[in-house]
């Protein structure tokens, strides 16, 4: 006859199995760290592109020519692609270690719920960019990214929800500091990702 400790161990095992079947838990902390590093490099390059002739860090009103807009899009696309590649590498490595499939029903749900707000926000930001409304693009990218993370958090580890809330809050705050959006963007996509990644690395030893 099983002891109470054995029954509790069985229940914990069943709970763990149910959690694995309902959530994608193989997100790697190193994915967050690498994405944050790429974002910080991208923010630096964007700063050099936009403010190459300005010394002070105060509020600056700038006019971007078409060539600079294209260069900024190249930088943003490069950051996105490199982040996705590194994320795929570290996450697939962790999934293999956990004995979990990288692509299953839960992964599909996670990706769909993450990218719907990102797609809508991306179209909106591109439209605003080419219409010259540059100042609110950084806050909107943070807000829509936060919404995407909040959506995706239902299908993965709960810490994603906290990261999403932090991104949205930062985006809303940055709306009150138009002209400093690039710095808020660097904090959100760079610093917060690195901090999140380190926490995940320590907590889940990923």
Number of strands: 0
Q: What is the general shape?
A: elongated
Q: What is the string of SSEs from the N terminus onward?
A: HHHHHHH
Supply the helix-strand structural class: mainly alpha
How many whole angstroms does the radius of gyration measure? 20 Å
| Mean pLDDT value | 81
Helix content: over 70%
Number of contiguous helices = 7
Query: How many domains, in number, for the residues?
Result: 1
Proportion in β-strands: under 5%
N/C terminus separation: 37 Å
Low-confidence stretches: 13-24
| Biggest sheet record | none
Considering the chains and any ligands shown, give keywords for the structure.
206 residues, mainly alpha, 7 helices, 76% helix, 0% strand, elongated
Secondary structure topology:
Elements: H1 4-22, H2 29-50, H3 66-98, H4 105-130, H5 137-152, H6 159-174, H7 181-204
Give your account of this protein's structure.
The chain contains 7 helices and no strands. The protein has one domain (27-204). The protein has 206 residues and is mostly helical. It has helices spanning 4-22, 29-50, 66-98, 105-130, 137-152, 159-174, 181-204. α2 packs antiparallel against α7 (181-204) and α5 (137-152) runs antiparallel to α6 (159-174).
């Amino acid at each position: 006859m099983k002891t109470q400790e054995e029954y509790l161990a069985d229940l914990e095992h069943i709970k763990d199995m149910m959690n694995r079947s309902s959530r994608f838990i193989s997100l790697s902390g190193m994915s967050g760290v690498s994405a944050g590093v790429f974002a910080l490099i991208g923010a630096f390059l964007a700063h050099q592109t936009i403010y190459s002739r300005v010394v002070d860090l105060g509020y600056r009103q700038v006019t971007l020519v078409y060539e600079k807009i294209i260069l900024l899009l190249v930088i943003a696309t490069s950051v996105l692609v490199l982040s996705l590649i590194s994320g795929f590498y570290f996450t697939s490595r962790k999934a293999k270690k956990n004995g979990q499939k990288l692509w299953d029903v839960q992964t599909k749900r996670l990706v769909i719920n993450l990218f719907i707000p990102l797609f809508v926000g991306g179209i909106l930001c591109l439209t605003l960019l080419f219409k010259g409304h540059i100042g609110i693009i950084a806050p909107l990218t943070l807000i829509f990214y936060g919404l995407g993370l909040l959506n995706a958090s239902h299908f993965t580890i709960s810490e994603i929800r906290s990261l999403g809330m932090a991104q949205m809050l930062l985006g809303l705050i940055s709306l009150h500091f138009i002209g400093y959006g690039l710095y808020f963007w660097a904090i959100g996509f760079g610093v917060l990702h690195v901090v999140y990644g380190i926490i995940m690395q320590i907590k889940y030893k990923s």
